[in-house]
Amino acid sequence: MVNNLRSPKIIKLATQRGIVRVEELAEFFSVSLQTIRKDLNKLCSDGQLERVHGGAIIPSHIENIKYEQRKSINLLGKQSIGQECAKEIPNDICLFMGIGTSTETAAKLLLAHKNLLIVTNNLNIANILKKNIQSKVVVTGGNLRKSDGALIGQPALETIQNFKFDLAIIGCSALDTQGNMLDFDTQEILVNQSIISQAEKTYLVADHTKFLRKAPIKIASLAKVDCFFTDNKLERRLVEKCKLWSTEVRYSK
Asked: Where are the transmembrane segments (predicted)?
């Protein structure tokens, strides 16, 4: 198979899995490691992929990946994380659900929950949870980010600061090896920081691809999170830090 036929398949696999690895691609296409490295180098030089150790990922750099593309990255991993998180959300609470495709996946599993007061700055989540006739949904004000249905800015902050949440579910665009949650939009960062301060407990839902990405602005440390739901084992050093911070780490099945 010539390179121009492999390239779209490689990009599709990177989107589905979050990362493509040289050895796995060589086996998949029945070609040499050197051939795959050349393919990846070309895709990276064209800006379609970004090299990481042993493979490549969909690039993000200083701007986030497009919403429709983010939704499909590691979809099975996000679904398993959502299932694990949803099991830990009780009925009869005030719940905040934030921006992100992982939080949206978790929201889809709350349609049978009862007596929730759900506050969100994510129009996609509001549309999902309006089907839960046994719970109420409050949408914050804010500036609409048309690319993904997020509400940010001062009106969103003011709504959030008027509530005390029993539990908040948040996401992030990237995580570094020190355990810092990272994102791209300053206004979104301020909203997330306010959510954490107003919540009795905070859960983070983030799949393993977040450790492969970079983002320029810090939201907070995992020390501010009560439970981190993810789909792959963390590095030992970060596991030890989470223990020191009393941050529980839950792996989806």
From this structure: none
pLDDT per residue as tens digits for the range 81-116: 999 999 999 999 999 999 999 999 999 999 999 999
**Per the structure, how many domains does the chain have?**
2
82 in the same domain as 35? no
Q: Which residue reads 């006739």 in tokens?
A: 133
* Number of Cβ within a 10 Å radius of residue 86: 20
Give the tens place of pLDDT for each residue, 1-41: 456 789 888 888 887 676 788 999 989 989 999 999 999 99
Residues 76, 47 share a domain: no
Domain of 155, in residue numbers: 68-251
Q: Which of 14, 29, 59 is the last residue of a domain?
A: 59
**What CATH number is associated with residue 205?**
3.40.50.1360
- 108 close to 120: Cβ distance less than 8 angstroms: no
Classify burial at 180, counting beta carbons within 10 Å of its beta carbon; exposed 0-12, middle 13-18, buried 19 or more: middle
